[in-house]
C-alpha cells in the first residue's frame, strides 16, 4: 500500500516536522516488506572538508536554501527549493534498475511507474502514444554527431548505435564522397572500380564527389557526367623520392598534412552524407577533425589493412599472416631500408584507429575478408566485389563475332593469346612464357602481354608482343579479339577485374584459383582452372582451347551467365543499401 503523509511547511527545519520525519523513516523500514525506499541519511561531520566560500566556512557538499536550512546535494544540480508542503510517497515495489529490468521484464514496471500515482507519463509520439521504454529514432548523418559504438559483426544490420531514420534529402539522394588514391586516366583495377562506381551512383540520382591525389600529370582526371573530381595536394607529389615507383605514386599509411588540409576544405564545401574510402588514403581522412561526423565505408581491394606490402606474400609464397619479424624483411625489400620499417609501423599503429572509425568494411572477396582478419577484429563487414559495366556483358551468349572496326592496330592479325595486368612473376608471366613455348609449333598462336613492366622482358622469343600503358578501351579490344585469355596469377589475387572483363566480352579463359578468383570462376563451366605455377598444366589447358572450338564456345556461354553476379547495377544496389543503413 502507498502511504501519503502531508508534512507542515517548515518540515525541513528543526521542531515537530523534523521529529515526525524521523519517526516515519523508522516506521517505513520496519513495516514495509523488503527493502524500504526511504533510508536514513547520515550527516557528515560538521567540520570536515571545510572550505571558504563567500566569507564563510561551509562543509563540502552542503548548501543553504533561502531559509538558512542546510541541504545536502550533488555537485551538478542545484538544491531543491522548499515548497509549501512536502509529499512523502512510500512505494511497496522497488524501482527497476537499468540493465536488470531490460526487455519484457521492464514493461510491467514501466506501466506501473506510468500510472497516476507516480505521475509519470511517456511522451507522445508523432503517430500516437509512445511505447514504454521507446527510444526516438536518430537523425541523419548531416544533422547529428557520431557517438562511439561497437559494430555488430558481419551480416548484421545498421551499426549498433541506436535506431536510425532515413535521411530526408530531396528525392532520396545521398551525397557520397569517394576517397581514392588515383582516378583515371591512371590505369589499374582499383581506379576502374572507383570510376565505374562513381558513374553508377551518379546515374542512380546521387550526388557523387571523388577526392583523389594530384599526381602532377599534364592530363587531368577523366570528366564523367554527374561526377565532380577534387584534386588533393600531397607531399609525395613535391617529394617524388617518397614513392616506391616513379610512374605510379601511392598514398602512405600516415596522415599527409597537405592532403589533410585539402580534405578539410572538401568536407566544408561538399558536406557529404557518407564517405567511402579506398586504400591508404583513409589515414589522411581520419586526421580531418570534421570527418568524425561523417559515416565511413572502407573498401579493401587488397591486404593493406594488415600487410604493409599489400600483397600478403612471404618468400614468394602466400603468407600465413603478418608478424613483426617477417614484415620487417618484406618491407625492407619492397620499400627500401629507410622507408620499409616506417610503413610497417604505420600500418600496425593505425589498425585500432581504423577499427574504431570505420562503420562498414567492404572487402572485394571472402578471401580478402579472412586474410585481413575482419572476423577476429569484431567489425561489421560485407563482401562487395569488383564489377563490370552492364553494357559490357550485354551481348547475347553464342558464337563470338567481334566487329572489325574496334580491333586495335597494335594487335597481331594472326590468332593470339592475351594477358593483361602487371608484368611480374607473381602474376604468372614467367610461367605463362614457359607454357607458351611448349605449345605445338605448327599451330601455336602469338602471345600478347600488356601491363606495367616490373620484370625484365627484353629477351622474349619471337611471337611474343609486349606493350605498356594501354588505356582501358585498348585492353578490352585485346580481350574481345583474342583466341583465349590467359591470367595465371600465382599470388592471392583479391578480385582481379581483368578476369571479369575477359568473361564479359566473351574470351575463353584459363586462370588459377588463387585468392578471390576461386569465387569468380567455375572449372570447366566458365573457365579452365589450373594449379598456380604449374607450366605443364597451363600448357595442356591452352592446347585444349586451341584444338577444341566446342570447348571455347561452351566456356563463353558459361562465363556470360556467371559474370552477371558481378554487374555494375547489382553491386551499386548493394552499396546503396549500405549507405542507407548508415545515413
From TrEMBL:
Domain Glycosyl transferase family: 413-559
InterPro entries for this protein: Glyco_trans_1, Glyco_trans_4-like_N, Glycosyltransferase_grp1
Pfam families tied to this protein: Glyco_transf_4 (PF13439), Glycos_transf_1 (PF00534)
GO terms for MF: glycosyltransferase activity
Compositionally biased region (Low complexity): 111-131
SUPFAM superfamilies: UDP-Glycosyltransferase/glycogen phosphorylase (SSF53756)
Name assigned to this protein: Glycosyltransferase
UniProt keyword annotations, A-Z: Glycosyltransferase, Transferase
Organism: Nocardioides marmotae
Region described as Disordered: spans on this chain: 27-168
Span of domain Glycosyltransferase subfamily 4-like N-terminal: 187-391
Basic residues biased stretches: 36-79, 132-148
GO biological process entries: carbohydrate derivative biosynthetic process
Amino acid at each position: 500500500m502507498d502511504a501519503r503523509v502531508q508534512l507542515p511547511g517548515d518540515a525541513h527545519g528543526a521542531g515537530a516536522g523534523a521529529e515526525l520525519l524521523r519517526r516515519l523513516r523508522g516506521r517505513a523500514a520496519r513495516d514495509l516488506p523488503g527493502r524500504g525506499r526511504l533510508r536514513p541519511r547520515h550527516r557528515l561531520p560538521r567540520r570536515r572538508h571545510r572550505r571558504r566560500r563567500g566569507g564563510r566556512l561551509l562543509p563540502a557538499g552542503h548548501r543553504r536554501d533561502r531559509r538558512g536550512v542546510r541541504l545536502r546535494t550533488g555537485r551538478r544540480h542545484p538544491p531543491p527549493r522548499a515548497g509549501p508542503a512536502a509529499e512523502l510517497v512510500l512505494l511497496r515495489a522497488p524501482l527497476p534498475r537499468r540493465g536488470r529490468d531490460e526487455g519484457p521484464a521492464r514493461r510491467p514496471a514501466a506501466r506501473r511507474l506510468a500510472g497516476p500515482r507516480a505521475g509519470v507519463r511517456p511522451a507522445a509520439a508523432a503517430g500516437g502514444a509512445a511505447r514504454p521504454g521507446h527510444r526516438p529514432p536518430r537523425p541523419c548523418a548531416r544533422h547529428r554527431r557520431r557517438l562511439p559504438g561497437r559494430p555488430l559483426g558481419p551480416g548484421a544490420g545498421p551499426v549498433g548505435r541506436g535506431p536510425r531514420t532515413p535521411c530526408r534529402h530531396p528525392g532520396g539522394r545521398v551525397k557520397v564522397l569517394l576517397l581514392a588514391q588515383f582516378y583515371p586516366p591512371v590505369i589499374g583495377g582499383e581506379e576502374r572500380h572507383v570510376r565505374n562506381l562513381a558513374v553508377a551512383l551518379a546515374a542512380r540520382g546521387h550526388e557523387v564527389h571523388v577526392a583523389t591525389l594530384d599526381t602532377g600529370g599534364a592530363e587531368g582526371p577523366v570528366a564523367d557526367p554527374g561526377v565532380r573530381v577534387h584534386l588533393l595536394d600531397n607531399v609525395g607529389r613535391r617529394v617524388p623520392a617518397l614513392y616506391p615507383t616513379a610512374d605510379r605514386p601511392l598514398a602512405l599509411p600516415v596522415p599527409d598534412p597537405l592532403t589533410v588540409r585539402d580534405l578539410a576544405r572538401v568536407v566544408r564545401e561538399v558536406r557529404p552524407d557518407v564517405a567511402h574510402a579506398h586504400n591508404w588514403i583513409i589515414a589522411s581522412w581520419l586526421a580531418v577533425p570534421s570527418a568524425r561526423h561523417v559515416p565511413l565505408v572502407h573498401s579493401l581491394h587488397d591486404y593493406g589493412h594488415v600487410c604493409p606490402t599489400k600483397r600478403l606474400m612471404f618468400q614468394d609464397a602466400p603468407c600465413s599472416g603478418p608478424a613483426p619479424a617477417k614484415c620487417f624483411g618484406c618491407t625492407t625489400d619492397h620499400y627500401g631500408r629507410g622507408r620499409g620499417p616506417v610503413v610497417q609501423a604505420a600500418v600496425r599503429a593505425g589498425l585500432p584507429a581504423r577499427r574504431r572509425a570505420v562503420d562498414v568494411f567492404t572487402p572485394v572477396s571472402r578471401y580478402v575478408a579472412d586474410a585481413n582478419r575482419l572476423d577476429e577484429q569484431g567489425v561489421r563487414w560485407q563482401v562487395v566485389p569488383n564489377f563490370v559495366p552492364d553494357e559490357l556483358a550485354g551481348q547475347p551468349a553464342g558464337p563470338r563475332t567481334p566487329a572489325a572496326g574496334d580491333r586495335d592496330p597494335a594487335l597481331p592479325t594472326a590468332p593470339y593469346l592475351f594477358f593483361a595486368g602487371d608484368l611480374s612473376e607473381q602474376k604468372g608471366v614467367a610461367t605463362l612464357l614457359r607454357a607458351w613455348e611448349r605449345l605445338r609449333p605448327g599451330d601455336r598462336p602469338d602471345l600478347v602481354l600488356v601491363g606495367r613492366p616490373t620484370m625484365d622482358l627484353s629477351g622474349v622469343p619471337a611471337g611474343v608482343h609486349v606493350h605498356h600503358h594501354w588505356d582501358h578501351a585498348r585492353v578490352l579490344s585485346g580481350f574481345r579479339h583474342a583466341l583465349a585469355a590467359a591470367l595465371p596469377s600465382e599470388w592471392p589475387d583479391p578480385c582481379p577485374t581483368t578476369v571479369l572483363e575477359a568473361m564479359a566480352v566473351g574470351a575463353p579463359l584459363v586462370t588459377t584459383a588463387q585468392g578471390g578468383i576461386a569465387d569468380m570462376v567455375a572449372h570447366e563451366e566458365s573457365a579452365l582452372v589450373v594449379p598456380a605455377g604449374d607450366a605443364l598444366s597451363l600448357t595442356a589447358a591452352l592446347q585444349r582451347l586451341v584444338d577444341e572450338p566446342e570447348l571455347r564456345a561452351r566456356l563463353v556461354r558459361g562465363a556470360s551467365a556467371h559474370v552477371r553476379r558481378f554487374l555494375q547495377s547489382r553491386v551499386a544496389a548493394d552499396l546503396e543499401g549500405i549507405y542507407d543503413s548508415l545515413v
